[in-house]
Amino acid sequence: MSEVGDGLVVRDVVVRYDAGRRKAAVTAVDGVSLGVARGETLALLGPSGCGKSSLLRAVAGLEPVAAGRVTWDGGDLDGVPVHRRGFGLMFQDGQLFPHRTVAGNVEYGLRVERVPRDARRDRVAELLGVVGLEGYGDRQVATLSGGERQRVALARALAPRPRLLLLDEPLSALDRGLRERLATDLRVALRETGTTAVFVTHDHDEAFEVADRVAVMARGKVLQVATPPELWRAPASRAVAEFLGYQAFWPASALDPGGPSEPGGPRGSRGPDRSVAVGPAGLRVLPDDGAAAPANTWPATVVESVFRPRGVEVTLDVEGPAGVERLVAVAAGAAPEPGTRVRVALDPAGCAVVGREAPARQESIPTTP
Amino acid sequence: MVGRAHTPRPAPDAPTSPAKSGLPVARVTLWGLAVVVPLAFLVVFFAWPVLTLVGKGFVADGHLDLGGFGEAFSTPRTWRIVGLTLGQAVLGTAASVLLGVPGAYVLFRCRWPGRGLVRALVTVPFVLPTVVVGVAFRSLLVEGGPLGFLHLDGTFTAIVLALVFFNYTVVVRTVGGLWARLDPRAEQAARALGASSWRAFRTVTLPALAPAIASAASIVFLFCATAFGVVLVLGGLQYGTIETEIWIQTTQFLDLRTASVLSVVQLVVVAAVLLVASRTRARRERALSLGSDRASDRRLRLWGRGPDGTRSALGGDLVPFVVTAVVVVVLLATPLVNLLVRSLHVDGAWSLANYRALGSTGDRGALSVTVWDATWNSVRIALVATAIALVVGGLVALVVSRRPRRRVGRRAVATLDSLFMLPLGVSAVTVGFGFLVTLDRPLGLPVDLRTAGLLVPIAQAVVAVPLVVRTVLPVLRAIDPRLREAASTLGAAPGRVLRTVDVPLAARSLGLAIGFAFAASLGEFGATSFLARPDAATLPVAIFDLIGRPGQGNYGMALAASCVLAALTAVVMLAAEQLRGERDGGEL
């Protein structure tokens, strides 16, 4: 990403909150650097309280930046007030204006720009089409469902053609089915309108579905920025892997190099400082055919089996290289009864190799801006 | 379809130009004005008169002298007055709360046909002018009146009853407003755990309501302790409060020193109560955030079910329903209906003679102007007072509803908030009296505001400002700050955000604020009785003059004039309620 380059550049940004009388200020964002190219969608992914929303608000101009710079196309945004930045923002709960109709909400930004009435009407109709709410213009916002509200909020944010659209957990308040449907619609709408976007979420499925690249944040720092497949295949650190749902970390040296299920890939070099991260679908339950134990398989006792549409999910106590751990594996056939002794094997497609750090304290890894 | 054809919105500012300039000068000036104008109003028309008055209690012949306190407190009369004030305030508050909590339940938590009408009826007493209430209770309790056989006329009980009549609404609306929004599932969970309905109420609902009850009680206590018109009309010479005593010392005995000392005592009582009130209000606002928006009322169910399935008076809503019905019919409706009926009777027969007499100045020239003239004076003055209160109160609410980022700013906002609550507690009599002693040459300027005819509306505005703030502020505070942020990110400058988000959303409460302010100044008696010249008397002052003069004709006119004032107030409040829309309950 070039320094003067197109789009948004965030460099060493720090955001602090006044925590009240005689308390040290809380540092919500601690020296973050990021870049978002024009037309790209970047997801900020992290647990709640990791500073991702604060970073978003700082970019929007709603929080003061204590240190560092936010630039757009090389121009410093320091001191540019919120309403002059040309950045759209969409909140988790929509924040529609309750005293305006759907059309009144969508055209708000256009009225601010004094767009003539006819052009305004056309643009509102066009955007209601984009979000799948044709003909909703005269509805009162109080009569809308949660999903419809978010669609209106999206249309409202897109209407003035923002240079950058900031989305703060736009789908989190919705129920699962609706969330998945809207995530797809959101991606399509962003692509169709060619909008540059930053998308905050705590749900990695959502991030992977909508974003071109994902920045994983924890404790105010960015741990890794990568495309979804890259992130999944090669988490930069154990913290990232843990957040993505990797369930166990086994020393790579403990695996038999000749074994059939040796995880590897381009970064699979095995050294003493590397460990194998076992993903949520990284273990398979082997049919117990009574044969001798193959390499890289471990004995386990079934605790519980749950049927899922994509296979049986088995919870077991695995006697693996790091001692007995309670883990989840996938079984192909019938659900094994609790108490059954089985063997589990690694599924390379569901595993990754990460650097091996101290498990408790996680140093952040500086990332490329 | 939207394609890539359109160009993204260009940057309105060239990014290299430091756009910081847009912010400070204009905005700081405007916000500064929004702070300075109300503050100046408060200082000149409230702090200065009140402090001057207080000073008179401490200073004699140019040096500090606490002798006035010694003198005042060495007379048994002072102690008796202080005792009476606290006694009637305690009793009035206790009775209002005990009757008001069941009322809040029946009127805000249960659903039954006619509920809306009764809710409106219950609101009427609160906005009725104190003089009207005094006259209504007297005409009910006087020898020969419908309840004359109780011999309550001129007794302590009559005063307490009238205070409950006034303040029942405050408890019902404050507690009911919270109760209606309380999530019923906590109580349901307690029931599912085996608690009886009474136990569930006592252990779950009551603690949740406690902040609202405490806040209502402190406000009611304040109103009772500073009651003036009602006590003056009902108490006669025998009973009084600090408030009426200040009036008597000033106007009857011309003892300004004792009056000042009493004002200080009053201030101390009020400040203590306000402190408690603001504490509980802070707690209540926290408690409210736990409430849900779900409709949580349920059908009124008079009878409970006993363990054997039989009907039982316990467990159902019978007890609160009967209590509320008795209060509404006997305590609230009877005095008003009686007032109306008696105003239409002359010498035991139906007649409009009392109303026809309103065009006159009363028997033996009891008044300097006709009652209709006084009515017109009242309306005119109330219009001016409402306009002033709206500007000052609106600005205060606007400033106080902001949440500055810096701690200093937040503290300043909180201070401003409590400063403008003070006039609610400081007695109107003190304000009126203070005007008299200071505003002949305000700030040394050679203008005598007393003759300019502006003093009365200004004094009434001082009384009405806290009502405006308390009505508008909760609505402004309830606006999610992110709604404003959404408008900003859509390109709206701060002024436009104010115009397109804050103002439309607060507009409805503004209607109610206008109603409250107008009703309050229409019925204002404490300060007005000091300040209104006889030839520019307002309606409450005229009514008080009429009942003070002998003659059946004057008394009949007072009854008729009270009905006119009550009707005027009711119309104003009804119109305001219409503007208010769907929202139930509220601060007052």
Automatic annotation (TrEMBL), chain A:
Q: Which GO terms describe its cellular component?
A: ATP-binding cassette (ABC) transporter complex
Q: Which SUPFAM superfamilies does UniProt cross-reference here?
A: MOP-like, P-loop containing nucleoside triphosphate hydrolases
Enzyme Commission number(s) of this protein: 7.6.2.9
Keyword tags: ATP-binding, Nucleotide-binding, Transport
Q: Where are the transmembrane segments?
A: none
Specify where the region named Disordered lies, as residue ranges. Answer: 254-282
Q: Does the keyword Nucleotide-binding apply?
A: yes
The record, for SMART domains, names: AAA
Q: Name one GO molecular function term.
A: ATP hydrolysis activity
Key word Secreted present: no
Q: Which residues form the ABC transporter domain?
A: 8-244
The protein's name is: ABC-type quaternary amine transporter
Automatic annotation (TrEMBL), chain B:
**Presence of the UniProt keyword Metal-binding in the record:** no
Which Pfam families would you find in this protein's record? BPD_transp_1
Give the GO cellular component terms, alphabetically. Answer: plasma membrane
Please list the GO biological process terms of this entry. transmembrane transport
Every ABC transmembrane type-1 domain range: 82-277, 375-576
PANTHER family the UniProt entry points to = INNER MEMBRANE ABC TRANSPORTER PERMEASE PROTEIN YDCV (PTHR43357:SF4)
- The protein, known as: Sulfate transport system permease protein CysT
Which organism is the protein's source?
Luteimicrobium xylanilyticum
